[in-house]
Amino acid sequence: MSVNNHLRDVFDAIADPTRRRLIRLLAEAEEIPLHELTAQFQMGRTAVSKHLTILKEAGLVLDRKVGRETRFRLNASPLREIQDWLAFYSKFWSTNMLRLNQLLEEEEE
Amino acid sequence: MSVNNHLRDVFDAIADPTRRRLIRLLAEAEEIPLHELTAQFQMGRTAVSKHLTILKEAGLVLDRKVGRETRFRLNASPLREIQDWLAFYSKFWSTNMLRLNQLLEEEEE
DNA sequence: ATTATAAGACACCTTTCGGTGTCGTGTCAA
DNA sequence: TTGACACGACACCGAAAGGTGTCTTATAAT
C-alpha cells in the first residue's frame, strides 16, 4: 500500500552526488522551493528540476505548488530499503573481518 | 590507509542491479571464478567482467589469478560508507514519521 | 602436440544521463 | 496593467553506461 509503487530504483536515485546533496538540503529544512534549491548549485534550474523528478519517482521527495513556486520536502522512508539491503552484509565488516581483508590485500600485491 | 583511495563512488557501484547480484553471489561463497559467475547471468562474459571491474574500482571486490581462471571475492567494508550516510537519515523514518508522511501523501492527491 | 578453456583487450553500437537553452504560462508586485 | 518572477515542457547535445563480438594469449586436458 503506497509503498514499492516506485517507477525508479532507490539505489539508482541516491547514486548521483547532486541528488544526495538535495536530500541533505531537504533534510535540514521543512520545505524548500525549486528556485531556492537551485541557488545552492552551479547548474541551471532545469537540471536541478530533473534531479528532483528522479527523487520523486523513487518516492524520496514530495512536492506541492504554493503560489507560483513548487516546494519540495523529503520523504526518507524509501531509504529503508537500502538499510535492509545493507543489514545482510553488515556481518562482513566486523572489525575482525576488516583486519583480515586488509592483510589479504597486502599479501596479494 | 588503504581506505578511500577508490577511483569509483561506492554509491555508484551498487546502483546497478547486476552488480548487486554479483555482490550477493560473492557473499555466499569464498571465491568464484569469472566463468562461473558469468554462468549465473544471461549477458556475456565481457559484460560481467566489466561490472566486476567497477566493483573492484570501488574496493568492493578483490581478485586473484589461479591457473587460467580469475577468482573474485567480496570485500564488503566499503559498504560502511553507505551505512554511515544512512545513519544520518534514519531518524526520519521512525514509525511515527512514516505514518505522518503517508497521511500527507494522500492529502495531496 | 594438439585442442579446448578462461579471460584480457579492443573496437563498436545503442540507450541513458546529466547538462544546456528557449518558449509559454500562471502568479505576484508596482 | 505592466513587468518581473517561478516554473513546466520541450528540443537538443556530448559523454558515459551497458551491452555485443572478435582477436589473442596463457593454461589445462587429451
From TrEMBL, chains A, B:
In terms of domain of life, where is this protein from? Bacteria
| Entries under PANTHER family matching the protein | TRANSCRIPTIONAL REGULATORY PROTEIN
Q: Where is the HTH arsR-type domain?
A: 1-94
Q: Which SUPFAM superfamilies match?
A: Winged helix' DNA-binding domain
Report keywords, A-Z: DNA-binding
Q: Does the keyword DNA-binding apply?
A: yes
Query: Keyword Transmembrane helix on this protein?
Result: no
In Swiss-Prot or TrEMBL terms, this protein is called Metalloregulator ArsR/SmtB family transcription factor
